[in-house]
Amino acid sequence: MTAKPCLFTSPSAFPNPQRLRLFLHEKGIADQFEEHVYDMSPGGEQRQWRHLKMNPWGETPTLRLADGSILSETAAIVRYLDQATPGRRIMGETPMDQGLDAMWDNRIWVHVLYRITTMFHVLHQGLGPKLELTHNPAWGEHCRKEALAHAGLVNQHLSDGREWMLGKDAPTFSDITLATAIAFSKFPVNATPLDERFEHLDAFWRRWQQRPAFQAAYADRNSGVTELDNPK
Asked: Domains along the chain?
């Protein structure tokens, strides 16, 4: 019997692993993978030698395929799986849709989610010295302002009544990145809840919460966000 591919990942509080987890559920292939969830405490299991042999960058997610091949970096894993497995193309069906999805995903990742992630790391040192190497509150506040400014542009894009970033009937990968950005913005120490600040991001967030894939992706109740960990 061929072993299942194994995903080495983190709890749902961590945005990049969560982008992949949400993709897997939206694609309908989550049950095709074993999942090894690391202890992301100050010990930093993902920074120990067993993981570093697979991924010298010491980051999650990392995918080990059944033949032993290794892929890391969220967008790279998603691109491979979107093409290698049947079903709806989450990154876009046509070349134009794929280009637009990549454009919006890059904008949201670089200018919104990565800014919030950087803010978290330089303002908050709760993950310990292996991850939190720099304490720089001024830079953290700058990143907060940048994230809010660019989230405002995304909110404006959604103001024409579209439900998803590409105006399609179902979300694409840029929508997944935006959903995880909103979730991480609501993490208590980040205290920058994008859904509370922007009308159309609020509606977008509520749409995601109704999707079975979203509910399954956050089923570990370990996101650190009260409304996800203790749904009504």
From this structure: 6-84 (3.40.30.10), 95-218 (1.20.1050.10)
